[in-house]
Amino acid sequence: MFPQSGRRLNRVTILFVSLIALGFIIATFDVRSANNDVGDVLREGTQSVLTPLQKGATWVTSPIVGFVDGIANLAGLRDENERLADRVRDLEAQVRSTDALEEQVLQLELINGLEIPGELSTVTARIYASGSSPFDNVRYIDKGASDGIVVGQAVVDEDGLVGRVDLVSANDARIRLITDPLVSVGVRVQSTNETGIVTGRGEGPLRLEMFRASQPVREGALVVTDGSRFPPGLVVGTVSATAGAEVGFVLRTEVVPAAGLSQVDYVRVIVGFSPIDAGLTSGTPTTPATSSTTTSTTAPVTGDG
Amino acid sequence: MRRSRIVVALIAVLIAVVIQTTVFGAGQIRPFGVAPALVTLVIIGIAPYVEAEYHILLGFTAGMLVDLVGSGTLGLWAMTLTAVAFAANALRKRFEDSILMSLVFTFLLTLGGQLLYVFLGTLFGQQTASEPNVVPKMVLPAVWNMILAYPVFWLLRAAFSSRDRRWNS
């Protein structure tokens, strides 16, 4: 098999077996240790070395990548334009009806003396890199601890929840996407007001499980965060298939994430929220549209996952 | 073993990781939603230029680097790329037989690497095998690697031979 001598073959084989054994030990250690400080330190160190190279590579190659991407998508652009024009018309109609509802809600809140939830402070960040294999569900952003970002904070784009911060260095942070199988998020189905958990499946729709559902969930129902760890009312996605509730059984269905996770370039990290705020759950979905470059010193938020 | 060759191999691995996480990263160039496995390709491509022991060590190092920038369990890619390097070493003579053979072996080694990663990921509780589109995620990188093999191997050959010339002069 090898052109070298038998002694050499042995050396190579022994080295190979040793390294595989070392890999097993490292993997076992990583899985078994819940708060893997050593792993995190290694990851932060590696990322701090790679960050300048990755930012440089992104800066140099982004025009080429954009050009290649444009050519690749040329055929679909016309269809996409038509689809977006239809969507804009629908949304304009929705906005008109929402304006009237919003006015009603404001009046009701004033009447009931309720405090209107303040706008969430966010830090806008750019994604400059991702994981290196198709099985990775992480993104790297160009803002870190110096911008008020801490582990556990929710990350959103204009459509909804993207993920949570799971690793932070001074000027960079890593986001674990909601599609990651290790991420679970406490949610509420807006139409029934019942709670459940969505879990990532690596890609595509999320798995929704509701343990004490008394009503069925309908296709298209909006699913928002329940406020246990993330700010309440952040849009997570929509139910993709109707599912019924049966006594003694877990209601299971799928949720299509609202955020465009595969194409997201810019995100907002919600820095102005701590889990203590979650005591007041809001009924209205929170749209993280308020972008500011705030540096906040909020308490660390541990993600739902 | 010339130290310069290991340095060149390490630089090649580092460049591959940077390109993999940026140019072939999410939202970038990913034909059919899956990018080539460039680090695996480089590990296969350096087989003829470094000795077997160093090659296997380089595979392990590259795998650890991939693990550290990824979201999975540490050590899985390290084991995978160590195995790829070991297999590439076993086939290194046949690599030199013909271009066609090297392309076929590149496809098979990449596919084998992806399969091994899925197996190890499932073994360590990552639910990799139950992910949607797991088959395209295993097969497409192998196809892209086969397509990219010739230019990448050419670049590696140029890098190693230029380094050797400088070393000798």
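qc> The two ends of chain B are 17 Å apart (CA to CA).
qc> done
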